[in-house]
Input
Amino acid sequence: MDKEIKKQLSKVNRLEPSLTIGKNGLTENVIKGLKQHLKNRKLIKVKILRSFIKEQDKKQLFNEIAEKTGSKIVNTVGFTVTLFQQQEVVEPAKKSSKRFLIQKKEENNG
Output
C-alpha cells in the first residue's frame, strides 16, 4: 500500500462525510463537487443514501465513483466510502537555452 494512503488512513475515523449522494444519484454536478472536494482536501468521505443504492451493488457503485473522480478507495464502511486523490506533482519547466536561440537568430541575420 502506498505510504501516502497509509498516512491518510489514520485520519479516516475523524472525518465527517463531505457529501451525501441521494436519490438523484451520480449527476454531473455531484461528480464535479466530489472532484472539487478531492482537489481541496485530498481525502474525503462520501455517504450514499440507501434509496440510491437499492438497485445497485455497493462495491460497483463505489468503484464507479472512484473511477469518475480519478481517486482511490481507501475505506468502505456500510454506505460510506472514503476516497483519496494524490495531488499531481508538477515538474518545473525546463529552462530553454536562450543562448542557442539568440545564436540561431544572429546566424540567420548575418
Remarks:
- The longest helix spans residues 28-41.
- Residues 2 and 26 are 28 Å apart (CA to CA).
